[in-house]
Amino acid sequence: MPSHSHPPFPSSGVERPLVEHLGPVLEAMPIPMLFVDASRRVRLWNRTLALLLDRPAESIAGRTLEDLVDPRDRAGVIETLEPGRSGRTGQVSRLTLPACSGQEMMVTWLELVDNDQIAGWLVRLWSNPPTARLERPLQDMLYHEKALRDKLTALLTVSQTVVQSLDLGTILATITQQVRAVIQVDECTVFMLDERDQMLKPVACDVKSFREEVMGMTLKVGEGITGTVALTGKGEIVNVAESDPRAVQVPGTPEEQAALLCVPLPARERVLGVLTLARIGTRFFVQEDLELATLFAAQCSTAITNARMYEQVKQAYDELREAQAQLVQSAKLTALGEMAGGVAHDFNNILSAILGRTQLLQRGSTDPEMLRQLRIIEQAALDGAMTVRRVQEFTRVRHDERFETLDVNPVLLGVVELTRSAWQTRAKERGIPIEARLDLRSRGTIAGNPSELREVFTNMVLNAVDAMPAGGRLSISSEDVDSELLVRIRDTGTGMDARTKARVFDPFFTTKPVQGTGLGLSVAYGIVTRHHGHITVESEVGAGTEFTVHLPRGQVEGTAQSSPRSQVTPAALRILVVDDEQAVLDVLVDMLAARGHQVEPALGGEAAIAALAKVRPQVVFSDLGMPGLNGWDIAQRVKADLPGTTVVLVTGWGVQLDEASAQRRGVDHILPKPFSIEDIERVLGQLTAAPDRRAVA
């Protein structure tokens, strides 16, 4: 038999949250009680009432109260609960309920108001009331019922606060206020148990005086009456606290006669803390006070548990959101990188044709004016190639820069000297004091490129200086943390809001009105990623910004360099040139032929495979990105059919390819686009093998 019910019939104006709050409150009461809504229908009852019924408790669900009483009493019930009638709170009646074996019972009505409207009545029943109780003066009975109503109202208020709020401070403040008012105590304090050091610490209190002293008090588990309750998990009443040897005086407060009531805050099989109540003077606690305080303690435990769960969920959500933001940032830059890589490839093809033709024309011209014009075109093509290379920084997978075992501290010292004019000389000229502090404690090494990392740190230092228009402090530090080397660059400048912080690594995003391009931090992000690290940023408006560069510690293995190859170009090599772009194919053929080599062109991969057996080349120059058979396919076929033939991969993605990986796939050299005559001569100059290894005729 359920102790209370939520029957599926119309609510008659009673809000569901009110019913949900009342259920646990009614169940906690040791006297028969039920709740009827504004239409006088039974909505809830407790276990004590269920024991009085001579029928299933569910049979009264939804019945009106007048249906449950003797017909002679119905008119009195209707008159008492008539809408608009006042003065029903605390009113005492006598009713006969056939549902309760026809007993005559004394009934008290407690009106409940929700949102300024009558929500219903709490009905309290006494079965077989003793004569003394029946003869008790009405005023005393009303006073008793008013006290009961106040207790129920306080429990309901606390229950609503627990459900509606997840702020632990608000909930605990409400509980202490309600407990002090209802149980009529001078002091109410909630102690929380710190499980790390097993100390009880006040987290909320409602006292007449000495609040700071009470909040500053701490107790060990087992110390004092409060500590004893935390240890045993059982509530206690000590009405003469000063005579109890366990009692502990609150430091800074006078010695007074007091009664203490302490109840634990339970959470399954452990204690979260203790609710401690005090009455100053000769007023004692009784068992009913302990029972009511125990109900409040249960609500307090629920609030603490919910708040902790909320904090855990919130922390997990924040971590998930941060990880998601990093993934989005990475995906965004990856997409930009792929787009940039495709654009760079197409531009490199165009620039290859322009640069190659220009250099060929220069070698065949003696007209000074013509040579001047050609040199202008050549420089423009070279500048375009550098611009394309900067665009390829967004791909974050460049492999044209070799790493070395590196101590970061000298790099940082060099950056400080390199930027000194910005944060010292120019700052002094403008009357802006900028203090630079270094704390270089790292003793580890990394595998990195010093020039690239110098670019990263220089950019961050200059950004920090720009963020302090009124001066401030620039801090640069390095340290070893587990398997990482951390470099922190912090300023005390203007800081960033959340929106700016989220976009700080986006290409072309800048907060500088004139001189900024928005490429600095996005390039830095790419460089650090190529070093297998990452960057984090912490910033707050008005409180400065801190960039932290995380780099994996380690060193470059196998740093011994092989002996340099001869730069003597073998004469009259048989060369097969493969490309799907006619303009690039023609210019490369002409540049090689101008050096005296026997060159065979192949427009596309299929034509190259067909030409292999006929030409039997000593060297193959093949484009990488081609429809059908690409450069990797050509390299594998060449190595399978002509193992002694050298394969040179010509590609607009040259800076993105790992040379070691390319060699494992049959490629001997990589020639990035756009290429010059000098680049071709450098590659051919590395072909030092004996002619019989190249010639397979």
UniProtKB/TrEMBL annotation:
One of its GO terms (molecular function) is phosphorelay sensor kinase activity. One of its GO terms (biological process) is regulation of DNA-templated transcription. The keyword Phosphoprotein applies. It comes from the Bacteria. Residues 18-88 form the PAS domain. Residues 574-688 form the Response regulatory domain. It catalyses: ATP + protein L-histidine = ADP + protein N-phospho-L-histidine. It is an enzyme of class 2 (transferase). Residues 306-333 form a coiled coil. Its EC number is 2.7.13.3. Keywords: ATP-binding, Coiled coil, Kinase, Nucleotide-binding, Phosphoprotein, Transferase, Two-component regulatory system. Residues 342-555 form the Histidine kinase domain. SUPFAM superfamilies: ATPase domain of HSP90 chaperone/DNA topoisomerase II/histidine kinase, CheY-like, GAF domain-like, Homodimeric domain of signal transducing histidine kinase, PYP-like sensor domain (PAS domain). InterPro entries: CheY-like_superfamily, GAF, GAF-like_dom_sf, HATPase_C_sf, HATPase_dom, His_kinase_dom, HisK_dim/P_dom, HisK_dim/P_sf. The modification 4-aspartylphosphate is found at D623. The keyword Phosphoprotein applies. PANTHER family: C4-DICARBOXYLATE TRANSPORT SENSOR PROTEIN DCTB, SENSOR HISTIDINE KINASE. This is histidine kinase. It comes from Eiseniibacteriota bacterium.
